[in-house]
Amino acid sequence: TSAFGMGINKKDIRTVIHFHLSSSPSNYLQEIGRAGRDGKQSQAISLFQPDDSFILETLLFTDIITDDDITMFETGNHLPDEKEKILSTLNIQFTFSQLKDIFHQSYQRKRLGYMRMMGYTNLDQCRRKYLLEFFGEHPQSPKQCCDQDSRLEPIQILNRKKVKRKLSFNEKLYNLFET
């Protein structure tokens, strides 16, 4: 749905299908909000299996800038080019301490959104209400709003292949020296 963020305003979209979990409630609501802009009944379908969580983790947390990265940059140690460019640009306006705070807060926001979306996959309450509560809203649960409010049953897939997750450098290092 990201292509629609480029100025396309199509009002008669009836279905939005996610083949993977969105990274945060705000992204998800923005994406599913593309359906039904003409006020007619629409639906959002999310396809998810537990092994998919590693994809989201990889997308969100693989190349984040950490306190260690900032310390390495500060002491003149080499970083990947992309991180070095980002820190060089930001260090013009922010101190190293401020950069650590900024990136730590960014990480916390991403983690909170990620955890909320992981919780979204295993609910026994209205999905709309669950997402809106993340933003401090407390809506009434309408009838026939989601699969939790109707007689829809989740699809169970048997004999699916396990997806192997690549370990991060830190995980490999930890496993190497684990006692």
TrEMBL record:
Which Pfam families does UniProt cross-reference here?
Helicase_C (PF00271), RecQ_Zn_bind (PF16124)
Q: Name one GO biological process term.
A: DNA recombination
A GO molecular function term, named singly, is:
3'-5' DNA helicase activity
Q: Gene Ontology cellular component?
A: bacterial nucleoid; cytoplasm; replisome
The record's Gene3D superfamilies line, in alphabetical order, gives: P-loop containing nucleotide triphosphate hydrolases
Q: Where is the Helicase C-terminal domain?
A: 1-87
UniProt cross-references to PANTHER family, sorted A to Z: ATP-DEPENDENT DNA HELICASE RECS-RELATED (PTHR13710:SF84), DNA HELICASE RECQ FAMILY MEMBER (PTHR13710)
- This one is known as ATP-dependent DNA helicase RecQ
Source organism per UniProt: Staphylococcus lugdunensis
